[in-house]
Amino acid sequence: MKLLNKTALITGGARGIGLATVQKFLQEGANVVLLDLKKEDIEQGINKLGDFEKQLAYYVGDVTNKESVTAAIDYTVDKFGQIDILVNNAGITADAQLLKMEDEQWDKVIDVNLKGVFQMTRAAAAKMKEQKSGVILNASSVVGLYGNFGQTNYAAAKFGINGMTKTWAKELGRYKVRVNSVAPGFIQTEMTAKIPEKVLKMMEEKSVLNEMGKPEDIANAYAFLASDEARYITGTVLSVDGGVVV
After folding, report:
1. Quick one: three-class SS letters along 105-126?
2. Do the beta carbons of residue 26 and residue 53 sit within 8 Å?
3. Helices within 50-115 (DSSP H only)
4. Does the structure show a pLDDT above 80 at 245?
5. Residue 196 reports pLDDT greater than 90
6. Which transformation does this protein catalyse, written as a reaction (predicted)?
7. At 215, is the pLDDT very low, low, confident or very high (cuts 50, 70, 90)?
8. Do 35 and 12 touch, CB atoms closer than 8 A?
9. Which residues of 204-241 are buried (b: 16+ CB within 10 A; e: fewer)?
10. 30 in a known ligand binding site
């Protein structure tokens, strides 16, 4: 098992890619704290995971709230004795073309997708510095590499995450803390299930593999980057997109 005796905190872990990552990390032997905004969503997610009672805990928290972030990190350390891995998975969308985008849409996405990642990482990195070890994994996107129509706010956040990833890799490397991002392409989730069939077909055709990815594809990438098998990988943005951007 790749992550035996490791402790991970995974934000936005109640559904989709986050829940798949929680499950993968548990299967690989990690202790996991699942963080999400609503207790009912967390409970629904946990019911899908199987019997990992000794390895799994949860925290109802808000990545945009500094006090909540600090409390979540402290809870993780108190519960399992350390924090080895942080997966900054929490994220939202509020799409609109530039000339139609409201300030509220911009602020909300930047607050969760960019500031939230900054706050979680700052708190976790302080603990990892003391331990002289750790892994930070950020949810980027192909949108953060190439932009996307109607997603000014989301693209700005994901481009920002890539920049922070490389900056943090340089700053934290001296403490043996690795920092990487994963940039998913089009992934089948509850969100995409609501998209019209015609649009889904178009998304499939953008991949050279002619299919959308699954949450497990991203979870597998996170598990590899979190493991000692990736001990010499830091400051990278790994595209997991089925060749969308080839």
Report:
1. HHHHHHHHHHHHHHHHHHHHHH
2. no
3. 66-80, 103-110
4. no
5. no
6. a (3R)-hydroxyacyl-[ACP] + NADP(+) = a 3-oxoacyl-[ACP] + NADPH + H(+)
7. very high
8. yes
9. eebbeeeebbebbbbbbbbbbbbbeebeeebbbbbbbb
10. no
- The residue among 221, 122, 117, 95 whose CA lies nearest residue 161 is 117
* Amino acid found at 117: V
pLDDT of residue 206: 87
Structure-token pair, residue 73: 């990190």
- Homologous superfamily of the 7-186+214-239 domain (CATH): NAD(P)-binding Rossmann-like Domain (3.40.50.720)
* Residues with catalytic function: 154
Asked if residue 13 belongs to a known ligand binding site, the reply is yes
Lay out the sheet containing 237-240: strands in order across: 56-60, 31-36, 7-11, 85-88, 134-139, 177-184, 237-240
pLDDT recorded at residue 201: 85
12 has binding-site annotation:
yes
